[in-house]
Amino acid sequence: MVKLDETEFRKAMGIFATGVTIVTCRDAEGRPTGMTVNSFTSVSLDPPLLLWCVNRSILPFPAFSKTEHFAVHVLNREQEALSNHFAIDRPDKFTDIDYSEGVAGLPVFPDFLGLYQCQVHDRVDAGDHIILVGRLVDYEIRTGEPLVFYGGDYHSIV
Questions:
Q1: What's the CA gap between 70 and 93, in Å, rounded?
Q2: Residue 18 half-sphere exposure, CB side, CA atoms within 13 Å?
Q3: Number of domains making up the chain
Q4: Residue 50 CA to its chain's centroid (Å)
Q5: Range of the domain at 98
Q6: Residue 112, Cβ neighbours under 10 Å: how many?
Q7: Has residue 123 been placed in a domain?
Q8: Tell me, what CATH number does 143's domain have?
Q9: Looking at the DSSP assignment, which residues form a beta bridge with residue 45?
Q10: Selection from 102, 84, 106, 101 nearest residue 93 by Cα
Q11: What does the pLDDT look like over 20-44, one tens digit per residue?
């Protein structure tokens, strides 16, 4: 078995270009919370399922470990600053952030390339993360260029 430290593993996985998303939900007290995520993919067409992964050591983990709904926002090329804002592990990320309410009161941003609102279908233990599998309840897609992450930095595909 290959033994990699965290930095080496991150570098090895960083050669896979991904889109950038922000996942949001409400915590037990009803406050909006969210985080930047690139571990996002489709799982099933019937039923429509998708998944993403959340680290157990971050501040929003308790909210995501208990929520029954979450929203995944696929970011467009102009949303690098928003991605960076939600990538920092701190409380009150929604201060001065424009959002409205979606399915089940989910915090949703007005600008996105794609929005997938989900009900939690399953949670899977995966080492220092859990995998959240969501069943699609509602979605909206728009045209534009995606925000792409590769090799530890943002890139354009154009």
A1: 16
A2: 17
A3: 1
A4: 11
A5: 17-155
A6: 22
A7: yes
A8: 2.30.110.10
A9: none
A10: 84
A11: 999 999 999 999 999 999 999 999 9
Q: Report the C-alpha gap between 21 and 5 in whole angstroms.
A: 26
Q: What amino acid is encoded at 31 in this protein? A: R
3-class secondary structure, 147? coil
Instruction: Write the pLDDT tens digit of every residue in 64-98.
Output: 999 999 999 999 999 999 999 999 999 999 999 99
Integer Cα distance of 39 and 157 in angstroms: 19
Task: Give me 114's structure tokens.
Answer: 């794609």
What is the three-class DSSP state of 12?
helix
Find, among 67, 50, 39, 69, the residue nearest to 129 by Cα: 39
The pTM assigned to this predicted structure is 0.94
Give pLDDT tens digits for 94-131: 999 999 999 999 999 999 999 999 999 999 999 999 99
What token pair was written down for 153?
Answer: 């930095």
d(CA 129, CA 54): 5
